[in-house]
Amino acid sequence: MVAPPRLRYGLPAALRLRRSAEFAAARQRGERLVCGCLILNWLPVAPGRPNRVGVVTSRKVGSAVVRNRARRLLREAFRRHQHALKGPLDVVLVARASIAGKRAGEVEQDFLAALRRRALLRSAA
Question: Taking the domain 16-117, which CATH number applies?
Answer without folding.
Answer: 3.30.230.10
